[in-house]
Amino acid sequence: MKFLFDSDSWQEIYGSIRKNKVRTVITIIGVFWGILLLVGLLGAAKGIDNGFKKMFGSLATNSVFIWTESTDIPFKGFQKGRRFNFNFNDIALLKNAYKDKIKLLAPRIQHGEILFVNDFKSGNFQVSGDYPVLDKIQKKNLIYGRFLNQNDIENHTKVCVIEETIYKQLFEKNEYPIGQYIKIDNVNYKVVGVFKKPSTLNIDGSTAYIPFTTFQKVYNTSNNVGWMVITANDGVDIKQLEIDVLLTLKNLHKIHPEDTRALGSANLGDELSKVTGFLKGMQFLTWFVGIATLIAGVMAIGNILLITVKERTKEIGIRRAIGATPKSIRSQIVLESVFLTLLAGMVGIVLGGGVLMVLDSVWGTGPDSALVNPTVDIPIILIALLILIILGTLIGLIPAFKATVIKPIEALREE
């Protein structure tokens, strides 16, 4: 390892680079471009991944949404086109049948374009009958007050939690809304909470949440459930759970097993797995292309060093004649190879970081940006540098051994 701290070795490397400036620059371009490509693409993949995570936000990604539509196949005496509703018997049966797989189940019911009034201010928004469990499926960012609680459900209280768009429409700026009453479809409700409009994927629009039991009484919906959200336990295959639950619901409502239109569903876990699979494929392709480019660049360095060794044959012969060992000559050439490789790599890393900063400033700002904080983790950079050192060492051994197999007397005769 002494040659690493030998000033003569570094002076010789400096002299070689200075003597062949253009050739050195051309040589390191391949390695520089490979590491720049690697850092840029890996950082972009990370930014896209962060963007999808931001989009889902606090929403439980191992969730499936299920709703009813109309049947498409006649079955057990029922005609095609039959409409039906979920009910609380369905909810109870699902909770019992899949108690080891279902973590959260939220029955829901909604009406849209309902008139909201506060004094002389009004607007049309959605009203949703819900249970407190909804706040666990997608956490509400409360500006004022609280979300629905179990007491609201048990006592059928006329309270509401409104989204900030509704608050801005019905109240003065900075007015404290908690405890005030608003009319929703001509029924008075006390405002107990205001939540911030999600900047991420929002399962509802501008909505006022009221207790499910209150919704039942006000709109006389009896035992009906509009739709449901199911969140699976950790480790449960949400796609398989979706298939099993849909089949169970078809059996309960006498729907043909092959009827694909009677029940609608959206599986967040399935969609997220597609995105994750795409990103993993992108990362694999990035590593493959990046390393292939690095190998090509490092091979170019090896070829240039072979030329250098040829040009310095007489010099090497003189060094051998005055006592230089083959090991010292090999070390010198390998050190030059590793230095050029690392120099190109570090320049590529720095410029790659600059490219990611530009990408972040151009496409990473704004609430709907698809690219969020594109970065490359430090361990990845260290792995890339280690690969460069290994490749630089291996490719440097070729001209190094070429230099040491030349006999001193033959080298001194070289013209």
Give a written overview of the molecule.
With 415 residues, the protein is of the alpha+beta class. Helix content is 54%, strand content 18%. It is built from 13 helices and 12 strands. Strands 3-4-9-6-8-7 form a 6-stranded mixed β-barrel. A two-stranded antiparallel sheet has the order 2-10. Strand 3 (102-118) and strand 4 (121-130) form a beta hairpin.
C-alpha termini separation: 33 Å
Overall average pLDDT? 82
- The sequence of SSEs as H and E is HHEEHEEHEHEHEEEHEEHEHHHHH
Low-confidence stretches: none
The strand line-up of the biggest sheet is 3-4-9-6-8-7
- In percent terms, what proportion of residues is strand? 15-25%
Overall geometry comes to elongated
- The total count of strands amounts to 12
Largest beta-sheet characterization: 6 strands, mixed, barrel
- SS summary, helix count: 13
Structural class by SSE content = alpha+beta
Binned, the helix content reads 40-55%
The radius of gyration computed from the alpha-carbon positions, rounded to a whole number of angstroms, is 34 Å
Observed structural traits:
single chain; 415 residues; alpha+beta; 6-stranded mixed beta barrel; two-stranded antiparallel sheet; 13 helices; 12 strands; elongated
Q: What is the strand and helix layout of this fold?
A:
Layout: H1 7-19, H2 21-56, E1 63-68, E2 86-87, H3 88-97, E3 102-118, E4 121-130, H4 134-137, E5 142-145, H5 150-155, E6 159-163, H6 164-170, E7 181-184, E8 187-195, E9 207-211, H7 212-219, E10 224-225, E11 227-232, H8 238-252, E12 263-267, H9 268-311, H10 313-321, H11 326-363, H12 378-404, H13 408-413
Parallel strand pairs: 4-9, 6-8
Antiparallel strand pairs: 1-11, 1-12, 2-10, 3-4, 3-7, 3-11, 5-8, 6-9, 7-8
Helix pairs in contact: 2-9, 2-11, 9-11, 9-12, 11-12
